[in-house]
Each structure stands twice: as C-alpha cells, then as structure tokens.
Amino acid sequence: MTAALEVTELYKTFAVGKRLIGPPRAHVRAVQPLTLTINKGETLGIVGESGCGKSTLARMLVGLLEPSGGQIKIEGEPLNTADPAAFGRRIQYVFQDPVSSLNPRRTIRQIMEAPLKHLHGMSKAARARRIAEIFSAVNLRLDFLDRYPHEFSGGQAQRIVIGRALAADARILVLDEPVSALDVSIQAQVLNLLSDLKEKFDLTYLFISHDLAVVEAISDRIAVLYFGSVVEIGPAIQVFSQPRHPYTKLLAESAPVVGRPLTAPEGRETELPDPHNPPQGCAFRARCSRALSQCGLERPELVREGADRIIACHNSL
Amino acid sequence: MSFLGLLVRNRLAFAGLVVMLVIVVLALVTPLLPLADPDVTDTANRFKRPFAASVILGTDHLGRDLLSRLLWGVRLSLAVGFASALIAAAIGAAIGIIAGFYGGRTDNVIMRGVDMLMAFPYILLALAIVASLGPGLINALIAVAAVNIPFFARNIRGVTVSIAHTEFVDAARLSGMGDARIILTEILPNVVPVIVIAMSTTVGWMILETAGLSFLGLGSQPPQADLGSMLGEARSALITNPHTSIVPGAMILVIVMSINLLGDGVRDALDPRLRSGALSRPMPSTLVRREEPVPAKETSALLALSGLKTQFHSNGRIHKAVGGVDLYVRPGECVGVVGESGSGKSVTALSVMGLVASPPGVITAGAAHFSGQDLIGANYETLRRLRGDRVAYIFQDPLTALHPLYTVGAQLVEAIRVHHAMPRAKAREHAVELLESVRIPNAEERLDGYPHELSGGMRQRVGIAMALANDPELIIADEPTTSLDVTVQAQILSLLSELQRERGLAIIFITHDFGVVAQLCNRVAVMYAGRIVEEGPTDAILNAPAHPYTARLMACVPELGRGRHRLAAIPGLPPVLDGLPEGCAFAERCHKAKEACRTGEIALTANAVQRAVRCIDPEFRTADAAR
Amino acid sequence: MADYILKRLVSAIPVLLGISIIVFLIMAMIPGDPAMAILGSYATPENVEKLNRDLGLDKPLVQRYFIWLGNMLQGDFGRSFSLNRAVLHEVLERFNATLVLAGTSFVICSVLGVAAGTVSAARQYGLADKAITFAVLLGISIPSFFLGMMMILVFAVNLRWFPVSGMWPIYGERDLPSLISHLTLPAMVLAAVATGVIARLSRSAMLEVLRQDFIRTARAKGVHERSVIWRHALRAAMVSIIPVLGVQAGFVLSGAVYVEIVFQWPGVGRMLVDAILKRDILLVQGGVVFVAACYVMFNLAVDLAQSLLDPRIKT
User: Fold this and answer.
1) CA B497, CA B508: separation in Å to the nearest integer?
2) How many CB atoms lie within 10 A of CB C314?
3) What is the mean pLDDT of each run of 10 residues along chain B (627 residues)?
4) What is the largest CA-CA distance in chain B?
5) What is the model's pLDDT at position B627?
6) B115 touches chain C (CB under 8 A)
7) Average of per-residue pLDDT across C233-238
C-alpha cells in the first residue's frame, strides 16, 4: 500500500498579541508536532472537540495555512510552501458551510470552471465536457449551472462544493465537517454520495468531524485528536467500541445513543485546558480517572500497539 | 426583487430620485436655457425681490439675475460634490481593499496612517489643505475628497477583511487563482455594493462640505459662484434682503435632502440584511391574530397546546412555520420535540410565551393553556409575570443568550428580583445557591465574572441556573446542548435530568437528536414541516416508529458501534414552508405514498395506547386503538 | 485600569507626532515664498532673505520640522504676523470660546441624539419613529450655516428673543445669563446636524441589538419592557454608539467653524479662516495642531469610557 499523504512532525503555532514592531507577546500551539499517514484509497476519520486543532491541521494540509514546522508529502512529493495552487491539483478541501464557500455573486458555472481554467488550462469545450461529467457524478442537473448559489439548499450547495473539488482532479479530499451544517436526512444523502464518489474516482479522504457516529460510518481508520495532538489511531470499527485511550473512552461514552441510559461519564465538571497556559505532561491528565504521577511530568508519545493501533497514553486501557 | 423594483417600492426614495433627476436635468440643460448671463452686474437693479418684473427669483447685491446664478451654481455644486465623492470612493476603496486583503504588516501600516488622518476633526485637515493650496474650487474639491478618503478606506477595509476570510476565497485559492484575480473576481463584486452604499450616503455630505468651504470664501472665487459662495456673499445682506440668502440655501437643502432620501433607499435595496426585513425590532410579545375560533381547554395537563399555528409574514409571503400543533405536558414530565431544521419545533416552543420575533411572526390560531389559562392572546403583563417565574426558557447558544456587558451575578439577581421583591444581598445569596445547584465551581467568585470569561459548558450552566431562579413549573429548553461538545453535552444532560427528578420539573426539550431524546424524555413528538407527525412514549416510538418519516429519519442517522456502513438516506428535500402541498407534507419523499396521501387533511389519530400518528397508512396500528 | 490608561496615553504619542508631521508637510507644500506673503509690498530681496533666515526657512525640511516641534513642545508656537501676537496666546483664548460653544452642543446632541434614536427604535414604524426620522433627515440635510442664518432671521431679528451675534454683550455685564442668551442659538444650530447623525446611528444600533438573543433571554426572564429597552438594549447599543460620539465630537468641532462665522463667535474656527485668507501660516499651523491634539486627547477619553462599559476590552 502506498501512502497518499504523509505528515511528519507537522505543527502550527499562532502568535497572540501581535505588535507593530518586535516579537508578539505569546505563542499558542494549535497543533502539536503530529505524524500521520493516509494510505491510497483510504478514508481516515479525524475526531475531536472544538479547539482540538482539527481545522488548523486541515488548512495546513491543503496549503491554506503555512505550517510552523514539519513536512507534508503528497503522493510521495514534499510540499511545504503555503501555495494553494500547487496543492490544488493534488489535494482539495471541502468546507463545512457550503453556503459561504460559494461566492454569492458568481454563477455555478463560473465557480465550477475556475479550477478547470486555472489549474488545468482547459479549453472551453473541454471544460463543458468535464463539468457535465462531474455534475452527473454528484447528481446535479446541468441547468443549475446558470443559477446563483443562494438559489440552492444546503444539501445541493454541498454537492456543488464537492463537484468543484472533483473538478480540480485531485486524488485526495480533505472534508472538514462536510455534513455538520446539514440536516440528518440530507446528511445521509451526502455521506452516501461521498462513498460512491470515492469508489468511482478512486479517491482518498481525510474526513474531519465532531460527530463520532458519522465518522465511524464513513471511515476505515480513525484518529482521535485532543488539544492539538493525536491521542489514538485505530480501525474505525474498534476505536469507539474498544477504546484504548481514556479520552476516546470518554468521547464514546458521552455520545448520546438510543437505548443507553443517561449517565455523566465524568464525575468532575472539567473542560479543556487553557491553550495560553498549557499543562505539563499529558493534556488530558486533569480529566483522566486513570492518571498516574508520571502523566503530570512526561508527555506520552504515540506508541504502536498491535498491528493497527497507535496510542499516546502512559496507562492505556 | 430587482434593485430598481425595491427602490421604486420605497416611496420616499422614489421621491428623492425624481427630485434629483429633475435637478440634474435642469443642471445639464442650463447652458441651453434662455437665461441672463449669471456674471453680468447691473447695480441699478440690485436687490430686486422675487417675482418682480422680468426676474423670477430677483437679483442679488450686484443686480445679477438670481435664477441664472442659482442654476449655474447648482451645476457647479453638483459637479464638485459628485467628483469629490467619486475620487474619495475610488482612492479610499483601493486603499481599503489592499489593506484588508493583504492584512498583516501592510494592513497595519496603512491603517495607522488612516487613523492618523482620522485623528483630525475633518475640517482642520480641509482647512490646512486649502491653506496650503490656496483658495479655489478645485482645491476645495481636493480637500473634501482627501478628508473623506479615510472614511472610505476604513469602511471598505472592514468589509474586505471579512470577505477575505470567507471560505469561497479559500476555495478560489485552491482553484489556482492568484491574488490579483481573487481581488477582481471574488472580492470586488462583493465590495461594490458597500462602496455604492457608502457613496450614496455621503454624496450629500460632500456637497454640503464643498458648499461650506465656498461659503467661507475658500472655494469658488468671484465672479464664478456655486451655491455655497452665493450664500456667503448674501450673508451681509441677510437682514435687509433675506431672499438672496434663502434662494441658494433652500436649494442646497432640497438637493441634499433628495440625495439623502435616495441614498437611504439605495442602502435599503442593496443591504442584504435590510432587504430581508431583518432590521425590524421584535415586539415585546408575538403578534396574535387568531381568525379561527379559540379551542377550549381539554386536558388537565400543565401546558396544553391545541391547534397552534404560527406564521412568518414577510415580503408578501407567508411561511407556515407551525401549522396546527397539539401537544401537552404533565407536571414532572419531560416531553421531547424532535425534528429537522424548518420543522417548526423551535417556533412552537417560542410561541408558548410569545417569544417568536414579530415582525415577522404572527400566531394565527390555537391556544396554549397553562394551568388552565390561555397564554395565546393573554395581555403582555400577564405573559411577563409568568415568563421566567412559572415558565422558564433555556436557549441554544449560551454565548449569545447572556448579556455580554452584565456580570453573571447581575443577570441572575435581576431574574430573581423581577418576580420576587427582595433586597439585593438576599437575591445574591440565592444566586450563589443557584450556581452551586448547577455545580459551578467557586460559585461566589463566578458571580462577579462576565459571560465571556466562562467556557461554553459553564455558560450553559448559568443559563440553566437562570431558568431555575424562580422555581418554575415548566422549563422549555430549545436545543440547549446543540452548540456544545459531546463530553460537555453529556455533563449538561445528566445535570438537567437530575434537576428534573429532584425538583419535579416539567420540561419541553427541543432537539434534532434522537439519542438525546431517548436518554432524557418520557414522551416524544416528531415534527415535520410545521406539524406533529407522530407522538407517544419515547421507548415505544423509538422501538417501533409508526410514521414512515420517523422510521426513515431514525434509519438515516448513523449509529455508533456499527462500524462502516451505508446509510438509508431519505431522497428529496423538505417542502418549502411558503408553499406546502395539500395532504401529507412528506408524501413527496415517502416510499409508501399513494394518491390519497396528496388530498385533504390527514388527522393525527391514535394508533396504539397513548400513541398517535398522522398517516393514512402507518407502519402498524394496534386493534384497540383503531376503534 | 491604571495600566490601561497609561498604555493608551503612551499610544497617543505616535498619533500626536503623526499629526504634527502631516500638518508640517501640508504647510511645507505651500507654493511660493511665505516670506513674500508676510512682507507683502515690503518684499525687497534683502528683506525676504533676512526673514527667511529669521524664520529658519533656509534650513533643510527635516531640520526645520524638528526645530518647529522642539519649539512647540516648549510652548513656543511662533508669532502671528497678522495679529502681531504669540500664536499660543491667541489660540488658547480663541479655543476657550470654541470649547464653550462646542462643548454645550456636544452635550445637547449626545443626550438628545441617543434618546431620540432609542425611542425611535423602540417605537419602530410608529408615529414617534416617523417624526424623529423626518427631523433627523432635515437635520442632516441642512447646511449649518444656512440654518444659522435662518435662526438669526427668525429668532434674533424678527422675534428678538436672542441677540444676533457675538459671545458677550458689547456693553454690560459678562455674566452667565448673558452668555446663555448669546449661546442658545449657535449651540442649537451646531447641535442640529450631530443630533441627527447620532440619532440615526443610535436607532440602527438599537435595532441591531434588539434582535440579539440576549434580549429574548431578558424577555423570557420576565423583565419589564421599559428595562429591556433602556437597560439591556441601550447598554449594549452604547458599545457601538460611544465611538460614534467620539467621531461626532470631531464633527461638532468642524461645524463650529461655520457657526462661529455666522454668529461672529470669537472662536478658533473663525480665527483659522481669517488666518488662511491672510495667509498667516504660523497661526494656521499652530491652531490646527493645537485643536487636533485636544481632539486626540478627547478620543482617548472616549476609548477609556468604552473600556469601562465593555468588560470584553482587555484592560
């Protein structure tokens, strides 16, 4: 199996309190040095709560945000500059809010043509052919092309956005919460469409979501993010049913599930640590019922356990 | 509606447009009119009154024909005003777009410069510029334009920044577009309306300003006169011959007023928020216009909604958000209302206490009996006394639901003292107890903190504490955990469930999540397109849904623990609320739909013990209920 | 808080320097020889050269700026040739008169504008709203100099309720009642435009705030409508109204120029216009820098008021 996307020690720090001259007052680490591999044809799900750095990671992977350090290799080729045009042919991004990712003052045709024109320099006839092909793949009618984005519902707009990503002819799609702005009945349509497209065009997905069930339903493997770092990676079927990291367990138990009685999985009323003042050692320690004294001193490294599990915990389940 | 259509519909703006057009046409044809030479003096005929022989508007202190001077002056004033507006807008917008788009240091340096210019009271800058260039109309034009550049730059920069950070600009980058192309095709088309709005609201101002400089003798120089310098020259004769002042002054007033009216109209027609009528202030309670007979009280429930219909009337369209809802809650019971967006679940909840924003909301039918009293159509004071005292709300987003400028304590104390007169100190003590009851650590300290200092979960706890302030009998919770993370949601849900048991609260819980309903609610009502399609005990419905919509909605929610699987999606889209089909609203998407589904009213009928469904062919029907 | 005030004070220094540079550069752009303008018909080549040397105009631009700045910091704004008087003395005296006029107007327009805007928003589309909207439109469309002239015609000439012009009676006591009677018309005229702008902005700020979720929360709590409007909504709206008040103070100061001319008010605006017409550059320069500096300090106070109101601004 070849890697579609390899990320090595990628991290991002943001400056807070910028000044006109001189260094900023402080730095906040949004993504801790992170290493990940996505295989060709795979769907890797990324799960995490707000503030865990999942969107920052996604934006770095498509070149919209310059990494502070580390390396991104796409299909074996390193791409470390923040140049979306260079990334665009290989990796595309599908945004959470389909409505705001379409320019309200351009027609769908103009929107769809942009990647064909600027990334591939196609002729007018070739563009029309390609658009027709893509529109049939995402189940949209061709007469939509001369309308404006506000005339479409969320589900249709998201299909258009997916269509635009396909038009760039990239083999890898980063899907950043692609269905969380949609209603459940529409969400299922879009998720199914994504599965079909993957098969049809031989795509690789990085699927980011806060919804465990959605991620589980679409992914081959799942990575769990907490406070900017990966705490656990494993096969989708196992990660939430047999969690190894205490945070994964907490997540799985917090998700409301029909037929499971309501219990507070956490005794304490605790929440995320303060990014301006990050804790020493394991970031999850304060909320963890299995914390050891070691956890307060040393950050746990990601360690491979068994064939397909990777966990960062001193006292895993 | 088209831009012109909107403009014409606005009568005042239209009047402004007409007046403006007349003036512009007059100004354009002035050279062709048979007028006296505006600059020829005739001191023998000075200070002729208006309508005196041969001179319609009279003559000025040098005997020059006022009508002629007025029209030539209008020409000059308009030209200078529009020219300076165009120059200021063009330069200001260019600066603003560059600063806003590139951000960072470029932005910083440019905007510091702009701030510097804005640190002057504008006339000082204009005076300084005129002082340096020397008096003259062109120099006045330059000064007025220069003084207004910072205003445009700042305005346009703000808009550009927000557009430069939208997803569609990111998408354009990923489509291989360069900066220049993005500015031209993505940013500019979205900024132009803002530039036009800013211009249309400042042209009048700029005409006043250039007239002002001329009035001071710093603009147009004799014998040439614009309206300002005519007024300036006439000032010395104000008392003896007021008409020489009134004529040019009134003209300026008419011009600027018509421009301002037109400008407001342009703004209203171009601003997307104003266009949708969003800038209406919601009234203290929802408008009630019941045209059908008011349903009588039927049950002994704590709250019983019967036949509730709430609509949104805007731009001549009627959205039937709630189309006849019957729902009841008994004391100590938790009822879930489940539905997708647009199903009318939140509007139903807000209608109870008249909290639906009106305009555009109108309750057109139904009743809400709370302890026997009908709340729909109750007068404002009755509603106000019940709100927060016996019926309390918890809202979705705890950040926007709390007042950002008052401390948590002040907001809690207010909630208490509005209904129970007590000394501030005592109310404060009670507030501490409330915060402790929702398990906020360091309750005493938190009281003096502001909402923005709390995390999302803590804020929602404050929201819950506020709802509990007066020991209500009923809490209506409108998606209280939707904006929270799963782990925090679990904490809040278990807190709510505990409070409900301890205090014997009745809860109406609005959500889109079946998992949450299953864990919290005794009974559940499923809504689709403004109506309840199925209702009954939670377990029964979740185990054996009777309405095809309920069944299929549950099936298309991915289930945790099943691993990778294909979802059973519902085809099609929910119907639009301003054009609901006859019969069952779900028929379009339903695999069981037949002809009968699309005709006539389909009633919510009992199909099993304590269960009801709005379907002519439900998934099942038990024998005893069918009778 | 003290830290915040200090920080803001320090941050005003570059702004003040920037203002002095802008004014200096604009004045340095003046074509022709200022000495010629000063000397007029006495401008023999020797005289011009001597005056240039005396004024330091033969030195390079940067050096001239620093000399000028250094002198200003020591309170030496130069000498007005047209008045034959120290610029600072003249400016201070005139600025006092302007402060009385503009200050009164500013208080009137702030109170009236905010109140009118709030009432207008709370009674949207009602009779009060329509009346206020019309008055506001009139206010922002009428040139203040024309309004001033009409007021003189009606209230001073025809009705004789107020004096026609000036700050003090020519003969008689310079006491408060006589000041008030002289002040009433010009202060009202000056306030008219700014009241309109503030009322307009307050109205839209209030409408914006009244749609917010926390207003619904207040109503859901059972808060009286009066308190919803005047406590919850107005306080939140003040966050966007206060900066406008700061900007409007600049407009009041600007409008004062016209009103001072129309009413013969012995303020700094009239002085500046006279100075420009007489090409008394040092007086213009000094006057502009002084008033602009005062305005910067005023805006600093507005910022501080804002930070007191809004806890989200980091102090």
Assistant:
1) 12
2) 7
3) 67 88 91 81 77 74 84 91 93 94 89 86 85 86 92 92 91 90 93 88 88 89 86 86 88 93 84 61 90 79 92 86 93 93 92 90 93 89 94 90 94 94 94 91 90 89 93 94 87 90 93 90 94 94 92 89 86 86 90 88 88 89 57
4) 110
5) 43
6) yes
7) 94
Q: DSSP state, B477?
A: E
Q: What CATH code would you report for B303-390+470-626?
A: 3.40.50.300
- Is residue A163 over pLDDT 60? yes
Q: Model confidence over C77-103: pLDDT tens digits? A: 888 878 888 888 899 999 999 999 999
Sorted by where each starts, the structural domains of chain A and their CATH numbers stand as 3-219 (3.40.50.300), 246-317 (no CATH)
Going C25 to C29 to C33 to C35, the CA torsion angle's sign is: negative
- By C-alpha distance, the chain C residue nearest B394 is C217
Say whether B559 and A241 touch across the interface (CB within 8 A).
no
Q: Which residues of B83-119 are buried (b: 16+ CB within 10 A; e: fewer)?
A: bbbebbbebbbebbbbbbbeeeeebeebbebbebbbb
Name the average pLDDT for chain A.
88
Residue B290 near residue B351, CB atoms below 8 Å: no
**Residue C167 — pLDDT band, cuts 50, 70, 90?**
confident
**Is B357 touching C (CB cutoff 8 A)?**
yes
CB A91 within 8 A of CB A61: yes
Model confidence at C38: pLDDT above 70: no
Interface test with A, best of B174, B497, B528 (most A CBs within 10 A): B174
Q: Which of B67-78 are b and which e, b meaning 16 or more Cβ less than 10 Å from the residue's Cβ?
A: bbbbbbbbbbbb
Q: Which residue of B has its CA nearest to C210?
A: B281
- Using alpha carbons, list the distances in angstroms from residue B47 to B60, B237, B241, B244, B277: 5, 9, 7, 8, 52
Contacts of B400 in chain C (CB under 8 A): 212-214
* Domain ranges in chain B with CATH number 3.40.50.300: 303-390+470-626
Q: How far is the C-alpha of B79 from the C-alpha of A181, rounded, in Å? A: 50
- Give the pTM: 0.87
Q: Specify the domain boundaries for CATH 1.10.3720.10 within chain B.
A: 3-31+53-275
- Chain B interface includes A295 (CB < 8 A): no
Residues 460-479 of B with CB under 8 A from C: 463, 466, 469
Closest Cβ–Cβ partner in B205, B404, B414 for C223: B414
Closest residue in B to A173 (Cα) is: B174
Q: Who has greater pLDDT, B181 or C3?
A: B181
Helix residue ranges per DSSP H, B380-484? 380-386, 398-401, 408-419, 424-437, 443-446, 456-468
Residues of A in contact with B112 (CB under 8 A): 20
Phi-psi category of residue C279: left, alpha or beta, with phi > 0 → left and psi -120 to 50 → alpha: left
- Determine the Cα–Cα distance for residues B16 and B204; give it in Å rounded to an integer: 12
What is the least distance, in Å, from the CA of A303 to any CA of chain B? 24
Q: If DSSP codes are grouped into helix, strand and coil, which group holds residue B299?
A: coil
What region, left, alpha or beta, does residue B90 occupy, with left being phi > 0 and alpha being psi -120 to 50 degrees?
alpha
Handedness of CA B58, B62, B68, B70 (dihedral sign): negative
Distance of alpha carbon B218 from alpha carbon B333, whole angstroms: 78
User: Does the B3-31+53-275 domain belong in CATH 1.10.3720.10?
Assistant: yes
Cβ contact, residue pair A85, B567, below 8 Å: no
| pLDDT given for residue C7 in this prediction | 83
Residue B252 DSSP symbol: H
